[in-house]
Specification:
single chain; 263 residues; alpha/beta; 2-enoyl-CoA Hydratase, Chain A, domain 1; Lyase 2-enoyl-coa Hydratase, Chain  A, domain 2; 2 domains; three-stranded mixed β-sheet; 9 strands
Length: 263
C-alpha cells in the first residue's frame, strides 16, 4: 500500500476504495473524511463505474473516529464545540453521500467495525463480512454515546438490538450481524475479497439505468408511509417500463436469450 490514506483501484466496472491508515485501524480522521467526500463525488459522476466496494487495509475495516484527533480538538482553545459540530456534520455528509451515490456500495468488512466504522457499514447498501469480524457502537464504554452512528444503525437493525448495542457497548459477531440484517453475507476470511467481488460483478451485470433509478427509489420510499410509497414507486415503475432497454430485457426473457443492453 502506498502513502495515500484512501486508495482507488478500478477493475472493469467496479471501483474499489481502500481506507489506508492500517496503523490507526483506518480511523476516520479529518483527512480521511475529506478524502472520502472527494472520492464519493468523483465516483458519483463517473458513468463507467457501476458498483463501488469499500474496504480497509490491515487488520481492521474501521475503528471509528480518530480519538487522538478528537482529544486535540477538545483541548484547543480556539476550537472546542465548533470543532466537534463540524466534525460530526462532515461525517454525516459522507454517510449520506454514500446513500445518495447512484452506484450501489458494498462494504467488505473484516476485523472490527466500531462506532463510526459500524456507521460506515450501515451506510453502505450491502455488506459482506469475514468470519470473526466484530461490530459495535461502543462509545458508551468511554462515556460517549454513539448518537450519530445510531442514525444509520437503527435504520439497519431492529430497534431493540440497536439500543442494546448502544447502551452496553457489546459487540455483535459476524453471524449475529447477518442474522439481524447489518450484513448480507458472512464468508471465510480467505474468500472475503473474492466473494465481495462476485456480488459486485453480479450487480454490475444488470441494466445500470434500472439499478440507479431503483437505488434512488429504494431510499425515497423507505421514509414514506405505505400509501405514499406505493404511489411513488408506481410512477417510477411506469417510467421504467417505457424504456427501450426494458422492452429489450422483457423480450429477451420471453425469447430465452441474453438481452442486448449497452456495454
Amino acid at each position: 500500500m502506498n502513502g495515500e490514506i484512501l486508495l482507488r483501484a478500478d477493475r472493469g466496472y467496479v471501483a474499489e476504495l481502500t481506507l489506508n491508515r492500517p496503523a490507526a485501524l483506518n480511523a476516520l480522521s479529518d483527512a480521511m473524511l475529506a478524502a472520502l467526500d472527494t472520492r464519493i463525488a468523483e465516483l458519483s459522476a463517473d458513468r463507467t463505474i457501476r458498483v463501488v466496494i469499500l474496504r480497509g487495509a490491515g487488520k481492521a475495516f474501521c475503528a471509528g473516529h480518530d480519538l487522538k484527533e478528537m482529544q486535540a480538538g477538545r483541548q484547543a482553545e480556539d476550537r472546542g464545540a465548533a470543532y466537534f459540530a463540524g466534525l460530526f456534520t462532515r461525517c454525516a455528509a459522507v454517510m449520506t453521500a454514500l446513500r445518495r451515490m447512484p452506484q450501489p456500495v458494498i462494504a467488505e468488512v473484516h476485523g472490527i467495525a466500531t462506532a463510526a466504522g459500524c456507521q460506515l457499514v450501515a451506510s453502505c447498501d450491502m455488506a459482506v463480512a469475514a468470519e470473526g469480524t466484530r461490530f459495535g457502537v461502543n462509545g458508551v464504554n468511554i462515556g460517549l454515546f454513539c448518537s450519530t452512528p445510531m442514525v444509520a444503525l437503527s435504520r439497519n437493525v431492529p430497534r431493540k438490538i440497536a439500543f442494546e448495542m448502544l447502551t452496553t457497548g457489546n459487540f455483535l459477531d459476524a453471524q449475529r450481524a447477518a442474522a439481524v440484517g447489518l450484513v448480507n453475507h458472512v464468508v471465510a476470511a480467505g474468500e472475503l475479497s473474492e466473494r465481495t467481488r462476485a456480488l459486485a460483478d453480479l450487480v454490475a451485470g444488470t441494466l445500470q439505468a434500472a439499478v440507479r433509478t431503483g437505488k434512488r427509489a429504494f431510499y425515497d420510499q423507505i421514509e414514506m408511509d405505505p400509501d405514499t410509497a406505493y404511489a411513488h414507486t408506481a410512477a417510477v415503475m411506469t417510467e421504467n417500463m417505457l424504456w427501450r432497454d426494458t422492452d429489450e430485457g422483457i423480450a429477451a426473457f420471453l425469447e430465452k436469450r441474453r438481452p442486448e443492453w449497452p456495454g
